[in-house]
Amino acid sequence: MIFKAVGDSRPYPDHGLETTKDWSNVPPRVVQLGELITTKSTLDLRGLLADDSTFYGDLFPHCVEWEGELYLEDGLHRALRAALQQRPVLHARVLVL
Description:
Layout: E1 5-6, H1 20-23, E2 28-32, E3 36-38, H2 45-49, E4 62-66, E5 69-74, H3 76-84, E6 89-96
Parallel strand pairs: 1-3, 3-5, 4-6
Antiparallel strand pairs: 2-6, 4-5
């Protein structure tokens, strides 16, 4: 199993961080792929395989830690790419609510 669980929504309250600039104040840290719960259950293979998939966005995936769980809000493609490269960890911005 790559992720702890696969979800299809955000169970945590709205945190107000919308843009890459908003998230830039959250420092990245190392997270285990096996601890992540996704908030999306589908992905676009074109996004996964694109060479420039992070060109216009943040280099780090966005996670929310809520009630002891770690939710992958943005960056499913990057997390899956790390798993396919057999990397068990990922650098991500983690917002603690």
